[in-house]
Amino acid sequence: MSTNTNKTNPSSFFHRGNSLILLMACGLIITGMALMTGDESTPQAFCPDMFSTRRIVVAPMLCFAGYLLIVVGIIWKKV
């Protein structure tokens, strides 16, 4: 009877490192979405904060980094 050490355990598809990367990515996405929130601008009252750097640049970059980190967390293979 031969034993194959290359078999993977199907119950542990993601390792601990993958799970931590995915959790950090979710945290980045949630932070980015939270930074995008704020007062809205209506025809009666214009809100210039709608065009702030935080809402237009920083928050989308955090979300994009989170989505890229999700891809890394899925592809990352523990050696």
In short:
The protein has 2 helices and no strands. It is mainly alpha-helical and 79 residues long. The model has no long low-confidence stretch (mean pLDDT 85).
What does this structure look like?
By secondary structure, this protein is mainly α. It is built from two helices and no strands. Helix 1 runs antiparallel to helix 2 (53-75). The longest helix has 23 residues, at 53-75. The chain is rod-shaped. The mean pLDDT is 85.
SSE map:
Elements: H1 16-36, H2 53-75
Helix pairs in contact: 1-2
Count of individual helical segments: 2
The number of strands is 0
Mean pLDDT reading: 85
Structural class: mainly alpha
Shape: rod-shaped
Poorly predicted segments: none
State the major sheet. Answer: none
Helix content: 55-70%
Q: How large is the share of residues in beta strands?
A: under 5%
Taking Cα atoms only, what radius of gyration do you get, to the nearest Å?
20 Å
Note the gap between the termini.
27 Å
In sequence order, what are the helices and strands, one letter per element? HH
